[in-house]
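Dock guanosine-5'-diphosphate; give full complex structure.
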Amino acid sequence: MAEILVMKAVNAENEAFARRVRERLAEAGVLMINLMSGPGAGKTTLLEKTLGRLGDRYRFAAIEGDLFTDRDARRLERFHIPVIQLNTQGSCHLTAQMIEAAIEKMPLAGLDFLLVENVGNLVCPSSFNLGEQRRVTLLSISEGSDKIAKYPKAFRTADCLVVTKLDLLPATDFSLAEVAADFRVVNAHSPILALSAKTGEGMTQWYQMLKTWKAEEDARPRVA
Amino acid sequence: MHEFSLMEQAIQIVKASARDHHLHDVTDISMVAGALAGVNVDALRFAFEVLKADDPVVAHSSLEITEEAGTGVCPRCGETSPVWHFDLRCPRCGFLPMETVGGDALYVKSISGGRCDG
Ligand SMILES: Nc1nc2c(ncn2[C@@H]2O[C@H](COP(=O)(O)OP(=O)(O)O)[C@@H](O)[C@H]2O)c(=O)[nH]1
Ligand SMILES: [Mg+2]
Ligand SMILES: [Zn+2]
């Protein structure tokens, strides 16, 4: 009998893929954003609006993660951008390995943004680094204000909290103040945006943040 | 239920390690799950029981998972104390949130088994 000390993180393999993805993105000057939320919070709708507004100023591509179907990819293809649909066949999250395989098939050179819509799930995707430079977690008004306390990890690791479907606020007891306070319990610095893709309220701040993030990434010295 | 894919990865780590150290079978696996790692330990155990049957190297292994508390350090006053996802306030000075320095990881700590050379 022998005892062997292993001391190896279970996500070590995913982290290795994530590092490779990040290197490829940095070489190509592409900003990848990982969007996470529960199902139906409005990720695809936000991407559609973003492509409609910024599509002629920046070059976008998208990766759509879903258990099954290519419905979301078809919604984004209408904007004439490269879109890859990843079907996880029952797995509740994307992995960096899936992203690496997808960007192999994608012309990265000349792209500004790679938008990744993760599988709708507030738990599992937050444990898998995809190699993204920015992570956005969405919470819709109709989900209720208690979700940050219930799913803290998805919010702890976010670079921005986007509260969606602001137009529904009058129809619910959702409290923006409560959500903002709960978010600060788990996340000290990341900005909070509240918007409605339907009415357009608050969308300007979202577009502005994307531009700022892109400028920040462009200003970083490229690794040779 | 990302515990299944995590456990698949853990078994890969166990097998690679067993191979590197010439273990022909693995009798015990010891893992550590941090309280902030976002995993459910019961779901991990369940996933292991389901998956182990597929693999002769681990088919007879028993798995022990030790839970590790989250640890935070206060960026303002330097206090170190236990933390939980939604309980990141410094108990000494009230600062929010403390930076987590432990309990974030899920890892394979050690394995035991019989060596091929006796
Ligand atoms: N009222 C309202 N509904 C929205 C808004 N954004 C998205 N939705 C609706 O919410 C549903 C789910 O949106 P979708 O973008 O597919 O969510 P995803 O699953 O996160 O990609 C759809 O019926 C959308 O029309 C919004 O700002 N206001
Ligand atoms: Mg969608
Ligand atoms: Zn303190």
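Observed: The mean pLDDT of chain B is 93.
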